[in-house]
Fold these 2 entries.
Entry 1:
Amino acid sequence: MQLIQLQPALASIVDAVPGAKRFHIWTIGCQMNEAESAKAAALLRQAGYVPAVREWDADIVIVNTCVVRQQAEDKALGYIGALARLKRRRPDVRIAVTGCLVTGQERRLAERFPWVDLWYGPSEFERLVSLVPELADVDIDLVELPHYYDEGQADPEVTAFVPVIYGCNFVCSYCIVPYRRGRERSRPVEQVVAEVEKLAARGVREVTLLGQTVNAYGHDLPGQPDLADLLERVHDVPGIERIRFLTSHPKYFSDKLIRAVADLPKVCEHVNLPVQSGDNEVLRRMRRHYTVEEYRERIARIRELIPDVTLSTDIIVGFPGETEEQFLNTYRLLEEIRFDKVHVAMYSPRPGTLSARWPDDVPREEKRRRHRAVEQLQERIARERNERYVGRTVEILVDGLARGRWRGRTRGNTLVFFEAPGDWRGRFVEVRVTQASPWYLLGEPVTGGSAEPAILTR
Ligand code: SAM
Ligand code: SF4
């Protein structure tokens, strides 16, 4: 999963409802946090609140935190610290903090940040009622989504995240998530389908099913439906044209799931499969429960059954004890597999995890060097992978505007930009690719520059 920082900004809506109470949500972290902030926004809207661009204009501020790495934690703590000034000037403002920072830490945090009114753990939306009594009558499981968006972010009127499984039953030695998000809890199939149907009715065309280990879906439900079964059910929802899912664990990436991706036309040919390291000894110490050989075999099978698949992965460099040779094994694996996208992170010890008890012995400068080496390698590979699109026409779903250009993604999740007059949001458009970079493609809609947008039905 990717680390994002999301700031709601909807100048056009703010102040449009005189007298309405206003909310501001600050978010950092993974797509699950993004989904949970969006849900909090939906709940507040249902309670009659409207979004505020700045926390200074808000009646309630929600801070959604991440502690997967020290950097994210520091940013969240800095922001909560800065809210003291707001509370001094406007004692009536209510401040709530949620996300992975909070679980099990409420008392300690409350002492340090007494200006915060409410601490609630990930997905504990019902606790917001103590600050927003109007929420008592809202069905939290099936609140009307979607909500708001920011320029540069995908428009939730077009695409939406749908959490399908919370928590994680793995205990990777470096990872804080299981301690903060608890054991796996799958949402019932019918509940997920009902949410997707509501989204479709609102005009959403693409959904991404979310979980820390999304392909562990269903083992805790009666009848044990799995992710492939869920994909089939979501596939039947009229109006939904594209389905994605993340993040998958290599251990559960079954042939049945690969076949579901290959056979269900709406399921996009994109697989996010974090490998973390290309060295067996490091993987063993990470407690990942697979070997490089097993990972390679899964990738080969995915490529065999889904020939056009695009692949992304996550890597940690500088794990405790990682030698130069072990790092080079990761580097070589990346060269061999040639992912379309790699999220690389420098190891960050997380108090309470197993690996935090081991010496963090790869010096910071060396971690940086390995990080840069992976980035440079991946930049070259991604450029080469993307160049194959130049001159070809790709189908994108336009999900918003970014710095004056229309923005969308291919089925393989590659970003594409084009400039054209008219409103293209929410449309499937064929774009002829004229230029490729490691990070995105540039192109022109195949209408040949007409002011009338092409609406290409599928
Ligand atoms: N569940 C997914 C998996 O199995 O890979 C990933 C979820 S994790 C919250 C998101 C990413 O953060 C991981 O893939 C990993 O690369 C990174 N990450 C987690 N803990 C980390 C740590 N202590 N230091 C650096 N990166 C970390
Ligand atoms: Fe963390 Fe491992 Fe669970 Fe992913 S699978 S959330 S890395 S413990």
Note: Residues 1, 30, 68-69, 174-175, 177, 212-213, 247, 249, 274, 276, 314, 316, 345, 347-348, 350 surround S-adenosylmethionine (ligand 1) (CB under 6 Å).
Entry 2:
Amino acid sequence: MSDAFQTIIYEKQANGIAWVTLNRPEVLNAINMQMRDELWEISHAVADDPDVKVVIFKGAGERAFSAGADISEFGTAPSFVESRRARQERDLWGFLLISEKPLVAAIQGYALGAGIELPMCCDFRVVSEDARLGLPEVGLGYIPSAGGTQNLPRFVPPSLAMQMILTGDPIDAATALRYGLAHRIVSREKLYEEASALAGKLASQPPLALSLARAALRGSLELRLAEGLKLERALAARALARAV
Ligand code: COA
């Protein structure tokens, strides 16, 4: 693992909680290619680190979790084909979705584009009262491409997902909570304390059962009931084999 990240801060605590801070506050933590690469690197490092039980993502500064992909890099990749290949080879969002460790996002201020797509790859979203969550890509002539069109309707009703993505208008924290995109709303002052308490609870759970339950729940979003029940039986057998 690289010691010198430029765009993120990595902090590992003795209690099994690791914090990953998106650290470009001067551009509202916009996710540039370097940050995506560093997130890729740290995601693999924590996956391999038995001391890390839970990861919390947060944004540096006062104004945003992240204002999304760095728009100053749009159209600057070497070539469209090359940038698409790089994305396929290092599918950060897909990797987060199959993480065996629980992921928590602590969201303050703006969470736009990839700045809400990353939290949607997490298991929990704790948001501060001032959070604004939205997907503005269509207005820029793009569509969400870090999983937004597929993950959002799995959290909120399809009608709201359609509204958010086609208009680009963000929703507030209360709306996110009402429809299940956020798990809880807290004051800005309590955001990291709450996220930490939640992560502490998760870190105290048996890790194998936690990751098997996560895999079963993720499966339920994609499988037919009969297949989902089959998956649950297989995962339950693994948990049982370890428990006895
Ligand atoms: N990429 C690159 N830079 C960004 C950025 C992004 N996604 N979002 C914000 N910034 C930069 C701004 O360019 C500005 O830099 P500057 O001080 O050098 O001019 C700085 O962050 C502060 O943003 P600013 O626009 O001045 O703040 P604001 O309060 O007026 O507006 C937002 C806040 C979030 C509404 C606005 O920044 C915005 O719409 N950002 C783009 C969001 C977006 O489209 N993201 C999805 C991309 S697919």
Note: The radius of gyration is 18 Å.
